[in-house]
Write a structure and sequence with these properties.
It holds the Pfam family Transketolase_N. This is Transketolase. Belongs to the transketolase family. Keywords: Metal-binding, Thiamine pyrophosphate, Transferase. By secondary structure, this protein is of the alpha/beta class. It has one domain (3-269): Rossmann fold (3-Layer(aba) Sandwich). 42% of the residues lie in helices and 12% in strands. It is built from 10 helices and 7 strands. It has helices spanning 3-24, 29-34, 36-46, 70-80, 119-134, 152-163, 184-188, 193-199, 212-223, 258-269; strands at residues 61-64, 140-145, 169-175, 178-179, 182-183, 203-208, 230-235.
């Protein structure tokens, strides 16, 4: 793992997120910033993907179940070369390539259209099952928000994943502790996550989702698991990298002003 390179890329990813959401005057900066390191690691270190051949049959698949964090995914895809960086300037504009949520029909590198919370992991489990039937060695990685775990559909998918022994499925929880209405524990407690997933038949791994060393160790451990799906509970900071956005629920779905954008970029560059 080239940690310095990943850190450099993730800084660019975060700057892109801020710029994109400022230009569109709408979007979700908090949850996009919290998961930037995880998605950067997957595309630049872990997954078998080819930006020149996005539909390559033997590729690994990624599903952004928390589809509102699309700016993080788009930024990583642009940095990787799936589409020109210029496309990021038109986020959420009518007729633009990049919509407010991932669109698999039009955006290169997007495997599943997402946005309705809870459905992404269901898609991912189905994809993993299909790949197993084909005898494929490809893996499916799905990133969920922790507030998203309040959706019953998530647990139906979890039951199915364990029942079919989908060891080619790795779920990652962006565990930043906040959702649009405040703290998860106050809106609808999802604790204890580790015990819940263990009871559903998952191998459970915990890590710091904003630390590349810990992400790498967690993914390496997940590779060794046979006969059951894995969930990585990745503790993150909502708004990571921008001091006035960190751990503030209000930045879940709010675009920065020009002054705030400029301050954020200065912090991220520093």
């Amino acid at each position: 793992m080239n940690k310095e390179n990943l850190i450099s890329i993730s800084k660019n990813v975060r700057k892109n997120i801020i710029e994109m959401i400022y230009e569109s005057k709408s979007g979700h900066p908090g949850g996009s910033l919290s998961c930037a390191d995880i998605i950067t690691y997957l595309y630049f270190e872990k997954m078998n993907v080819d930006e020149k051949n996005p539909k390559m049959e033997e590729r690994d698949r990624f599903v952004l179940s928390k589809g509102h964090a699309a700016p993080a995914l788009y930024s990583v895809l642009a940095e990787k070369g799936f589409f020109p960086r210029e496309e990021m300037k038109s986020l959420r504009k009518i007729g633009a390539l990049l919509q407010g949520h991932p669109d698999s029909k039009h955006i290169p590198g997007v495997d599943v259209s997402t946005g309705s919370l809870g459905q992404g992991i269901s898609n991912a489990a189905g994809m993993a099952l299909g790949l197993k039937h084909k005898g494929s060695k490809s893996k499916v990685y799905v990133l969920l928000g922790d507030g998203e775990l309040q959706e019953g559909l998530v647990w139906e998918a979890a039951m199915a994943a364990a029942h079919y022994k989908l060891d080619n499925l790795v779920a990652i929880i962006d565990n930043n502790g906040l959702q649009i209405d405040g703290k998860n524990e106050e809106v609808m407690s999802i604790a204890p996550l580790d015990d819940k997933f263990k009871s559903f038949g998952f191998n459970v791994i915990k890590c710091n989702g904003n630390d590349f060393d810990e992400i790498d160790k967690a993914m390496t451990r997940a590779d060794r698991v046979k006969g059951m799906p894995t969930v990585i509970i990745a503790k993150t900071i909502k708004g990571k990298g921008v001091s006035f956005m960190e751990n503030i629920a209000g930045w879940h779905g709010q675009a920065p002003s020009l002054e705030q954008k400029e301050k954020a970029i200065i912090e991220l560059e520093g």
